[in-house]
Design a protein that fits this description.
3 helices, five-stranded mixed beta sheet, 26% helix, alpha+beta, elongated
Length: 136
């Protein structure tokens, strides 16, 4: 088993807000992240896939194709967008970094070539805060 990792970047705005709660409870739980005027992050996305090396190419998969997949299915959909409003695959989901990582997994996993599996989505919200998701 070999692991291949690609790092990408996107910028997006969001707010953490549960519409079933009062304004006060949202402020209590999410603090300034519940700001009505949103806030943004410079996200770093690290995608790791795994599988066996193809003896004919020496690759697990073509890294250019992995980059193109991440760009098309994730970065183009998220970059300079409001995660709460503009992103179809996040509709109805609280726009936390945890939920975003899970949604990114769902955007990529079905489109990987045969014999290649997602291993991990690592998503940095800030240089000091990140989540890792390894699937269900």
């Amino acid at each position: 088993m070999i692991y291949l990792t690609r790092k990408e970047h996107f910028n997006a705005a969001h707010k953490l807000y549960n519409p079933n709660w009062s304004e006060e409870k949202n402020k209590e739980v999410f603090g300034k992240c519940a700001n009505a005027n949103w806030h943004g992050h410079n996200y770093e996305l690290i995608v790791t896939v795994k599988g066996e090396v193809n003896p004919e190419t020496g690759f697990l998969m073509d890294v250019k194709k992995l980059s193109e997949l991440i760009t098309k299915r994730v970065c183009d959909e998220l970059d300079h967008k409001n995660l709460n409003i503009d992103v179809e695959f996040l509709k109805g989901t609280l726009a936390s970094t945890e939920n975003l990582a899970i949604a990114i997994w769902a955007q990529l996993a079905p489109f990987l070539p045969e014999g290649v599996q997602l291993h991990c989505i690592k998503l940095y919200e800030t240089p000091r805060i990140y989540v890792e998701y390894f699937g269900q």
